[in-house]
Amino acid sequence: FSSASTTCPYLGPFGAMPDAASASHSRSPRRCENCFEMNARWWRTTGSRKEENALSDYDRDDILKQNPLARALVELNQHVITCDSQDSQTAAPSVVQEQWYVDTFKRRSGFAKELQKHQRRGSKVVLLQRAYVEMVCTSEEQAKVIIQSVGDQCYFVLTQRDGHQEYSSIFNELNTDALPLTSMIFPERKVGQPPLFFVLTNMFRGVGEEDMADLHRRLEESKCSYPEAYCSLWLCTRDFGRLPAGFPKPEGFTVSNDDITGAMYSAMLAAPE
């Protein structure tokens, strides 16, 4: 990395980092800069490359170009390490690619008749999304402060470092192994007819041992110190984003006319120190 700090403690919102005794858990005496400090500096620096941060798969500027809440994302990364995120912003309706129809006819033959009508008409669809953010927290205590900050806005999954212990509002409240994140909504063909929609992505149960092992590998490759009790926190909004005018709301979907992504970030960043 371009420069290594000579001190490792990191303090910020969502609770403080472990004290000096806990900080001694660094894996090597050569490690000095804390991984959260490194991540914060990387996000503050224009032109940061993915090669400089083992915890990111993309260049910093490329991420921000695609993120309407770029400033909030940079600010959040002063306190946690984000691994993945999605905005609830709904893109303008667009025509479905022909290959999607071909593939779906094979997988979902029961919908072929109705889909063929949409295909002939060149129906425009929208992708309805929940906002989510996956992050690494310094400790379970920090994660719980963040969970409390978003209150009833979000579902959450907190996974401890070993990948075994989970705390989840998704599976406790909904009793499901998968939560829809992105759905393709077709326009109404007849007044009063239930709209056709397909779930494109789900949040499957938890993060799991394999994902936590990958995170641990990345932390080791970063050559930075890291707290013993780091954990994974995954949040998603309970509501989906805006549904454009003229599109019917699918049954079982709660949509919002508010900026739910912005509200989620604002709540996290306003969490008490």
Describe this structure in words.
- With 273 residues, this protein is an alpha+beta fold.
- The protein has helices at residues 20-23, 35-44, 60-65, 70-76, 98-107, 112-121, 140-150, 169-174, 208-221, 260-269, and strands at residues 81-86, 94-95, 124-129, 132-137, 154-160, 166-168, 178-185, 197-204, 231-237.
- The chain is built from ten helices and nine strands.
- The strands form two sheets. The chain has a five-stranded antiparallel sheet with strand order 1-4-9-5-6. A four-stranded antiparallel sheet has the order 2-3-7-8, with no helix packed on it.
- α4 packs parallel to α10 (260-269).
- The longest helix has 14 residues, at 208-221.
Give a short summary of the structure.
This protein has 273 residues and is an alpha+beta fold.
